[in-house]
Fold this sequence. Notes:
Blueprint: E1 16-24, E2 30-34, E3 39-46, E4 49-53, E5 56-60, E6 64-68, E7 74-77, E8 85-92, E9 105-107, H1 110-126, H2 149-167, H3 184-197, H4 205-211, H5 216-226, H6 231-249, H7 254-260, H8 266-277, H9 281-301
Antiparallel strand pairs: 1-8, 2-7, 3-6, 3-8, 4-5, 4-7, 6-9
Helix pairs in contact: 1-2, 6-8
Amino acid sequence: MKYKYTELTEEVTIHRIISIHYFEYMSDFTFAGESHNFWELLCVDKGEVDVVADHERLTLQKGEVIFHQPNEFHRVLANGIIAPNLVVIGFDCQSPRMAFFKEQILKVGQEEQELLARIIAEARLCFEGRLDDPFQEVLVRKDHGPFAAEQMIKIYLEQFLIQMYRYSFSARQAPAHLKDTPSAEDIYETILCYFEKNICIQLTIDQISRENLISTSQLKKLFSEKGNTGVIEYFNGMKIDAAKQLIRNRQLNFTQIANQLGYTSVHYFSRQFKHLTGMTPSEYATSIKKLSEKNIQRDTSL
């Protein structure tokens, strides 16, 4: 047999990464704006934010992403009420398909959210510094990062762009008559929505299983495969993320936040917070405030 090679076509190729950030901003955050010669995507992971793109002001909700094309002026403003969590990635891509993303606000699905999360996780493993530092202009490699971590970032980002492109031209979900049996992905998303609706109470595995019509063994397996963690551990992480957002909103004190999220005491809340973040609530609030003040000083000097 005479075999022939097939040259693989690449529709989207990432040449270089400029920046990778995961921001947890205060509710009054504002960024004076900038323009640069590379692409930048901004995805709202939590909350909402106003974005100015070439002087047009737009509001992005949770799960929405905007792409700023090279040399487009853009700035970010929190609305003064809700503290946003943002994924921001700057990258170089010369592929003609990128023209599709100009002036687009797209909805990000669960699969794409997971790809962004993997990019952030790999970046934390292979680059020095804090990903929430808006003034970090150079990605500094760690001496002993995981094997092929940078290549994984490239693969995940290319897959993210390809899927966003594909899903914009086709329905994300199959017709109802083809989905009589929910997939594992459907069940996982349903339970995550259930967690969000019940973020202010304490849940048990038995309660989660019973109210979502899934056995405890299936539930544990699902979160092990999809979230790479335990069920209650995942929910506790969501509660702490909610607490961080409430702290940045600056409308409630720590005791009120603990009560609102269903903790038995502010002391238990503080222990859980430090266990999952490495900081006490007070230390976290101080850290975020310093970053915000640093940004204000920079904006004033521009």
